[in-house]
Amino acid sequence: MRLADLPVPDSPACTNAVEVTTAYCSPAIVNHSLRVYFWAAALGTARGVDFDAELLFVAALLHDLGLVEDFDSHRVPFEVAGGSVAWVFAAGAGWPVQRRTRVSEVIVRHMWPDVDPQEDPEGFLMVRSTGFDIVGRGEADFPVSFRNEVLARYPRLSLADEFLTCFQDQATRKPDSSAAAAIRNDLGVRMAANPLEQAPPLNRRTSMYAVRAHARGGPEQLVYEEAPRPDPSAGEVLVAVKAASITPDELTWPERTPFIPSHEFSGVIAALGAGVDDLAVGDAVYGLIPFTRDGAAAEYVALPAGVVVAKPTTVDHDHAAALPLAALTAWQALVRHAGLQAGQRVLVHGGAGGVGSYAVQIAVALGGQVSATASTAQLQFVKDLGAQQVIDYTSERFEDRVADVDVVIDLVGTAVQSRSWPVLRPGGILVSAAAPVDADEAARHGVRGLYFIVEPDRDGLRSIAELVDSGRLVPVLDRVLPLTSTRAGYEALEERGRRGKIVIQVAE
Fold first, then answer.
1. Does the pTM exceed 0.70?
2. Following CA atoms 367, 371, 373, 374 in sequence, which dihedral angle do they give, to the nearest 10 degrees?
3. Quick one: 107 exposed, middle or buried, by C-beta within 10 A (0-12, 13-18, 19+)?
4. What angle do CA 342, 346, 348 make, to 5 degrees?
5. Do residues 340 and 346 make contact, with C-beta atoms less than 8 angstroms apart?
6. Residues contacting 222, CB < 8 A, separation 6+
7. Could you give the CA distance from residue 179 to residue 168 in angstroms, rounded to a whole number?
8. Is the pLDDT of residue 7 over 70?
C-alpha cells in the first residue's frame, strides 16, 4: 500500500475544496483533512469498497469547516454546520441536488459510531479514517510503512492540541453535541494514546521540513512534508533558510521530481563544505540558487559558496529574500546588458511587478530618466518608486507618450515588445526578460534587441546590497506567508494587481 497507488481525483471541485480548506483552516487541520482522505481511500481500496473518489475527497477536505469561526454555529453541531457549508460548496461546483445532499450526509455521519458500507460507502470510510487519524482506532488496517509515508507527506503538526481545544469549546457551548459526548468520553486521553501521535520526532540531523512537488504541474502538486536534509559537498555551504521568495512559472522549470521550489533566499550559514574559506558558520547571507538545483522552500538548502554573499544589513531576512532573482534580473538587464549610463532615457514595462519595481528603482539610482507602464491602481506606487513618468497602460498607448528612448526593459512580452521598437532611438536597445526578441525586427528599426535569463551573480548581489543599505533600493513585498502556505503563495501569483514579491517565511 503506497500513496502513489491511491486514486487522487483531478477535478475543479477537488482543487477548489483544497483551496477553501487552505484558506480557512490551519496547516494542521489541512493536513488532517488530506490524511483522512488517504486513510479512507486506502481502506476502501484494500477492502474492495466501491467508493466515489471525488465525493469522498471533497467530504474529507471540508468535513471540519464547521469548527472554523467563520462557519461555526451556536445552534447545531459542527458536523451539521460543516455539512451545510459543503452543500453550498457543491451547489457552486454545479453538482446536482442529490450529490450535494450526499456530500453533506457523509460529513454529518463522520461523527456517527459507524456506518453501513453497503448503504453509504463514503460515510463508512469517513467514520473509519477520521477515527484512525484522531484516536488511532483501527490501526491494524494500515501498514506501518504506509502510515509513515502519509505522515511524512502530511505531518500532524499541532493537530492534537488544536483539535482538542476546538472540541472543548464545542462541548462548552453545545453540551448536547457529538463533540461534547466525545469530551465526556475522555477524548483527550484517547488522542494522547493515538499511535500516530507517538511517531518518532523528526531527526534534525538527517531530515527537515520542506515543500516539494512529486509531479510536474502547478501549485496543486506542492506538498509540505518531511524531506532529507542536504549535506554540503566540497565548495558548498549549508544554509538554514529564514525566508525564500517565489516566482511565476518556476514550478515548470525542473525536469526531475520530487523537487523543492523557490530559488531566492536569505538565511544563515549552518555548515561549510571542504574548501570554503571566505564564509563562516553564522554568517547572514542571501543569494540566487542555480535553477538546476533544489530551491529554498525548506528549512535547509545546500548550494555553491560562489553564489552566496552577505545579505543587506539594513533589512530583515523577509525583505532580503525578495531581492536575489527579481533585483538581480533588473540589475543584469540594466547594467550588464543595456550598459545604462547616467542621463539616458529608460522605459520599463510592468513597473509595479516583482522585477519591474526593482528596475525602476535601480535605473533611477544609476541616474536614468525613467518612464514606466502600470495599471491605474498602481500609478502612484510606481511614481513613489522614483519614475519621472508613469503611463497607464489601461487607457494610454505608451508609444504616444514616449520617444527616443535609450533603453527599453521588457518584462511583459507579447504585443508590448513589438510595439516598443519604434520608441527606441537609433542604436538604442531593448532588453527582455519576458520573451525572445525578433532580431530582424530590431535590425529594421536600427536598434538592438536581447533576451536573457538571469543567472547567479555574486558581484551583482553585492552591488544590490550596497544600494539597499544606502537607501536607494527598497525591497518591495506583496505579502509574507508561512512555509506551510507555500502552495497558496504560488496560487496568489496569478492575482492581478500584485505589488512586488511574495515571500515565504521559513523561520523567525
1. no
2. 70
3. buried
4. 140
5. yes
6. 211, 212, 213, 251, 261, 486, 487, 490
7. 8
8. yes
